[in-house]
Amino acid sequence: MTCLSDPSVPADLRQTPYGRRAWLHQQGIAALGWGLLGQQLRRASAAPSESIKRAGFGTAKSVLIIFASGGQSQIDTWDPKPDAPPEIRGAFDSIATAIPSVRFCEHMPRIAQIADKLCVVRSMAHEDLDHGSSFHLAMTGRYHRRRSSNDPPDLTDAPCMGAVLQRVQFSSRFPQTAVNLNGPAEVPLVLGPGQFGGFLGKSYDPLTLGDVSRGDLAIPSLEPRLDLPVARMRARESLLRSIEQSIPESQRDVQWADKQERYRDAFEMLSQEDTARAFELHRETPELRDRYGRNRSGQACLLGRRLVEAGVPLVTVMWNHNNRGQDIDPKSGDLYGWDNHNDIFEGLQHQLLPRFDQSFSALIEDMDQRGLLDETLVIGMGEFGRAPLVAVERNFAGVSPGRKHWSSVYSIVMAGAGVSRGVVVGASDSRGAYPLTNSYGPWDVTATIFSALGIDPATHYFDHFSRPYAMSEGKVMQAVYA
User: Fold this and answer.
1) Pairwise CA distance, residues 411 & 183, whole Å
2) What CATH architecture applies to the domain 54-219+286-481?
3) pLDDT digits (tens, 9 = 90+) for 451-468
4) pTM for the whole thing?
């Protein structure tokens, strides 16, 4: 493994994350004789295949993911079954939307009104049935090494999409390539695997922020200090670098290299005034903040929009940071998750759906009015859906019926960046149990994301040992652009 501080790397390239990583990337390609493949990756945005061009290639400057952790019930949100028997249909009615003949759950009235800006995909499916491994699948587009498991994060995990994006391309407008808000995601008692750098290392972790609703500045440490001008801060950075470089080569391991990356990222953010401004929620009007919702998920969605404006290529909002936080405090809306094995209709009606209806509709409306939706791919998704049959599960808290995990079919929603407006792609059967049409998987979502950002998902990136990995194992969801 080539050390990040290798003296053979030109000094000017060691000074910036882009130069150092670009050098490592080029060295890996040369070492294995894959120069042509590397050129293909670097030229992806300039010379995509004709099929990629037709599928929304390069239409997005940014991607904003709203992740509903725990498994949204497709039947009780995007794909109701009003003609099914009660044990399948559930307790809720459906309502008309802005898309003719398309209905949503009755507790999503605001989203129903802006449905003509959305593309609903009703035929998502995969084969993993537990939260941790399914979360890994959703964040990376790859199955976990142990399907249907709840393992904690591990250095052998696949890197999240933000880490892969950072490996192959960098933001010229913002110091961070990927930011996770209202995180890290818990599933529910351990951190979910797949939201970090994985085998690429901690230096590729997205910037992760927790509760951004507590103050006016999401990162208080970015508050400018009059006693620390940029010149003085850069002098401190130089001193720190000198100290770190005094560590003998034999003691510089991966953790040392990751720490250097964190230092450089921190100094880069502190030196740019526009960076701190992007995290200042108080710059928004009180009315708009109210419209999003004065809670963790609502303010995270609002900050997500601000970071898209600032130029962050990939923003992931963990709409709920714990997939089953109601076990900790059933009265806390901020803790409530979508994993409703029992009491599903009480939880959806009084906790989850009102807040989701408010924040998600506000985000789509706000971005559309600002023209951001034209150049931003917005995706609302979870790790899977819920079972069509309503029943009480004795091994879980609660006394009224709920729905089990279900990955054989579920729904996601997409908008912006050339995605067709006011359409439904795919269909489930009359029970909401299995796809009636061709299905899509999380791997296809990752392929669509990379393609929208101008990266051909069929190309490869390289790890620190110069081993090639496909950008995505899926195919672009061309039907959403039809």
Assistant:
1) 23
2) 3-Layer(aba) Sandwich (3.40)
3) 999 999 999 999 989 999
4) 0.83
